[in-house]
Amino acid sequence: MLERILSSIAIDEWRRRLVFWGGAVATGAAAVLFAKGGDYSMQAFARAREWLPWWPYLAAPAGLALGAWLTKNVFAGAQGSGIPQTIATLSLPTGSARDRLLSLRIAVGKVALTLLALATGASVGREGPTVQVGASIMHSLRRFAQFSDTDVDRGLILAGGAAGVAAAFNTPLAGVVFAIEELSRSFEEHTSGTILAAVIIAGVTSLSLVGNYTYFGTTSAIMNEPRMWLAVPLCGVVGGLSGGIFSRVMLRAGRQLPSALHTLRAERPVAFAAACGLLIAAIGWLSKDTTFGSGYAESKMLLQNEALPTAGFAVLKAIATLVSYVSGIPGGIFAPSLAVGAGIGAQLHAWWPYAPAGAMVVLSMAAYFAGVVQAPLTALVIVAEMTGNRALTLPLMATALVGRGASAFVCRRPLYRSLAEQFMGTASRESMTALAMRET
Question: Rounded to whole angstroms, how far apart are CA atoms 323 and 264?
Fold first, then answer.
């Protein structure tokens, strides 16, 4: 009898491990496929724009309108970045409430609609959505094995989100730090091993499919003269304040649009999204086509000194990202924020050319991102891993902290946490409504 019980326990334990490992592999593979799809989508939009210069004025309104309609009517819960939804599920009380934000249906919709957005010129990224995709995969697989409530509520979701970041950027350390600092806002011993295992497995899967690489390539810029260190407070303050302003405007735009725009978005969301698409096309024309898509190519060229900054690129990219978010379509702000930071750094170097351009671009990316999400450790680690320059680690650390402090002067509430509270309120109300209907 005892042997049967022990055998049953061993089988259940191995089933949980296999399900968990399979989920991590699936997250890594999904991140790679998502990345490839994003590249193809942006390339298709660029080619169409070369053939038909007026293409953005047709594609952007139509694409955003279709994306908004599908999000509202087919893939509810897939809108926006995906990181706030993942954070929200960690605090929701019931499995049914979590299912409204994390499911395979939402994961499929998140990928498809983000690719649609990139294919039609929206200023969005795929990295934030990859977090929700990873968390959805891990959360959905719980039904194939008996996991405890702690595993379901925190371990699986945190591990899936961390694995999504690690595989999307090829930044395993950033995945762990992001899960601790941003997703959970705490370090918990019973989930740390789960997160590490998921990140390692997803990272290995990604490496086996696309090989080892640095997301933005590499820069050899160093800061070996005392006056160069003046770039730290300069980039930190300007980048952090800019990120804080963007975060505050985004939070206000989500709740307090002018009455006419608020009415239009509430009563005619598809028409509102189409209008946002027209504005994105106009911003693209003003920026000489540099604000379309995730901003990855522009960031890489600025980092490696392959292009000069376009006048107003950082401001126009931030506006295009804000408009894309307000339209209600799925899409992240990770990559666009890094592009804005790169634009700020390049422009600062044009005004103050006493530190290497590559260094100022990297520092400003960290400062702006830390200002937007108010997570300086994540900003430090993710930018350091994506650029592969260890010589700038200490300046990056200082700049990220300065950026976080500067951001707090204009926006005291972390962006993702504030957006998550909105999702928590919506999901809780829907859960209570469903429960009341069942009781009646």
Answer: 15
- Classified as helix, coil or strand, 244 is helix
Percent of the chain having pLDDT more than 70? 75
Our measurement of the distance from residue 264's CA atom to the centroid of its chain's CA atoms, rounded to an integer in Å, reads: 27
When mean pLDDT is compared across 164-173, 259-268, 333-342, the lowest value belongs to 164-173
Q: How far apart are CA 35 and CA 169, in angstroms?
A: 9
Q: What is the C-alpha to C-alpha distance for residues 135 and 361, in angstroms, rounded to an integer? A: 32
Indicate the SS3 state at residue 80: strand
Multiple choice CATH, 11-210, 3.90.780.10, 1.10.3210.10, 1.10.10.10, 1.10.3080.10 = 1.10.3080.10
Task: Name the pTM for this structure.
Answer: 0.86
- CATH code of domain 226-421: 1.10.3080.10
Q: What is the largest CA-CA distance in the chain?
A: 79
Q: Tokens 């339209």 correspond to what residue? A: 327
Q: What are phi and psi of 124, to 5 degrees?
A: -135, 165
Question: How many angstroms separate the CA atoms of 63 and 50, rounded?
Answer: 18
In a 13 Å sphere around the CA of 336, the CA atoms on its Cβ side amount to 31
Residue-wise pLDDT for 198-242, tens only, equals 667 776 676 666 666 666 666 777 788 888 899 999 999 999 999
Query: Quick one: tokens of 68?
Result: 């908004």
The predicted-structure confidence for 99-139, as pLDDT tens digits, reads as follows 778 888 899 999 999 999 999 999 998 888 888 888 888 87
Structural domain boundaries in the chain? 11-210, 226-421
Rounded CA Rg of the chain: 21
